[in-house]
Amino acid sequence: MEYISTRGQVAPIGFIDAILMGLADDGGLLVPKTIPQVSADTLRAWQGLSYQELALEIFSLYVNDEIPRADLKKLVDDSYATFRHEDVTPVRRIRDDLYVLELFHGPTFAFKDVALQFLGNLYQYVSQKTNSIIHILGATSGDTGASAIEGVRGKAGIRICILHPHGKVSKVQELQMTTVDDANVLNLAVEGTFDDCQRIIKELFADVDFKHRYHLRAINSINIARILAQTVYYFYAYFRLADQGQAGKISFSVPTGNFGDIFAGYLARKMGLPIHRLILATNENNILERFVSDGIYQPGEFRGTYSPSMDIQVASNFERYLYYLYGEDSTAVTALMAQFKAEGRLEIPADKLATVQSEFAAYGVQNDECLDAIGDYHARYDYLLDPHTACGVAAIDKVAGSGEATVALSTAHPAKFDEAIRLRSIAQTYPPQIKALFDKPQHQRVVGGTNDAIKDELVRFF
Ligand SMILES: *Cc1c(COP(=O)(O)O)cnc(C)c1O
After folding, report:
1. What's the Cα-to-Cα distance from 225 to each of 62, 101, 231, 351, 450, rounded to whole Å?
2. What is the structure's pLDDT at 403?
3. What's the gap in Å between 310 CA and the centre of ligand 1?
């Protein structure tokens, strides 16, 4: 298995080099050169596997022999041993046609742990095997930072710096990041939005000299390892629904920000998983919903919502989708991205839009609709949704056909977003791990949102 760039200017590289490269050196995103195909027979053979066994099979397709199977198995087992549920990502039946895939049983109570526990262990493994220095640099709208820090804190040979928008993450998210006191962790609270943080990171990574001099590695979902790790639970959920007699195709609803999680679903479908519809749920930051409805990709005005991890205007993984939409034509993708950079928008023709609309349904959830879904599902089903999951569920109620078996990806535990839950007068008890955060001292530096300000901090830290 080799990896190539969506912009076509990087010679094919292996799995480990792809992980280390993060953003492709030509400014594009890395994708597998060919997508491995999973046959109906293989699907049947995988039906009874545990989460860890399934992850091992799927990773094996992408890693080839670069990591010996016994080592890969240990990486997988170690990564999911930190989860609180024996199924890792259990599926809960809410009603006949609605299931919730709970992705929040990892150390930081958000779905990012599924990929970042693995990536943290993988970085440590690669650092030991290849003697590489690993300096992780990432931007977070809240959950990635906490999860990435948790994945590598205290690990020898690794340092991590995370940028988050100052005052624009939830209290629990902030505490999860900033109460970590390991010396290999630096939290920068940036005066600006998440899009500012993400742009700075992208520009620093695009400065190939700077990136190489400081051994910068990515943990954002531009890193292909994250996408691959997230395909696993689409398969896992499909099998759990089959256990419950849901034969045939099923749909998934995905609360979307950077298009990483839903791209993993798209990849799973391309591998051969019978997915009927991918429902793309956004909050009021609805650039992707608008793209699916009118074929124009153009950031709007930033809105603060109850689901801050989706408060994103420029979706970093979108380019991966464009690549497949344009039949793996890297020249077309390069032109589109150049147009986007120059004009701040891009537009696809009608035939492409028809393809998009056959592959995704989309709905942008307003703030009140999000809270209504939380209140409604709590009252009707005694099930407490976090505001991100609530966007996914509200989108299902809008666009899924009745009786269509649909899985809502639950991306966070409600305790992470009590600010929103309380607005519907619902009282929840915090899990003890979250309660304990409120008594700990915080470690962070507030910095201006310019590339130079961040560079200064990095040069001092790395
Ligand atoms: C990151 C995140 C999302 C969005 O996922 P993307 O891969 O960026 O689309 C949704 N919900 C929660 C809770 C998240 O942390």
Report:
1. 9, 21, 10, 32, 29
2. 84
3. 6
The active-site residue out of 112, 168, 211, 416 is: 112
Give 276-306 as a DSSP string: EEEEEEE-S--HHHHHHHHSEE--------S
User: What would the pLDDT profile of 81-94 be if each residue is shown by its tens digit?
Assistant: 999 999 999 999 99
Q: Which amino acid is at 130?
A: T
Q: Reply yes or no on whether the pLDDT at 64 is more than 90.
A: no
Residue closest to 141 by CA, chosen among 158, 160, 116, 166: 166
Question: What integer pLDDT is reported at residue 313 of this predicted model?
Answer: 87
327-349 pLDDT, tens per residue?
999 999 999 999 999 999 999 99
Q: State yes or no: is 112 an active-site residue.
A: yes
Break the chain down into helix, strand, coil percent, rounded to 5.
50, 15, 35
Q: Where does ligand 1 bind, in terms of residues with CB under 6 Å? A: 110, 112, 143, 221, 255-261, 309-310, 388, 411-412
Distance, in Å, from the CA atom of 280 to the CA atom of 206, rounded to the nearest integer, reads 29
Q: How would you label 211-240 residue by residue, b for 16+ Cβ within 10 Å and e otherwise?
A: beebbbbbbbbbbbbbbbbbbbbbbbbbbb
Within 10 A of 183 (CB to CB), how many other CB atoms are there?
Answer: 8
Residue 65 has pLDDT above 90, yes or no: no
Cβ(315)–Cβ(287) under 8 Å?
Answer: yes
What domains sit in the chain, N to C, each tagged with a CATH number? 91-109+225-424 (3.40.50.1100)
Instruction: Please tell me the distance between residue 50's alpha carbon and the centre of ligand 1 in angstroms.
Output: 25
Ligand 1 atom at minimal distance to the Cα of residue 412 = 13
φ/ψ (deg, to 5) at 210: -60, -45
Secondary structure element (H or E) that encloses residue 237, with its range: helix 224-243
Nearest to 391 by CA among 317, 460, 288: 288
Query: Residue 90 is encoded by which pair of tokens?
Result: 């259990």
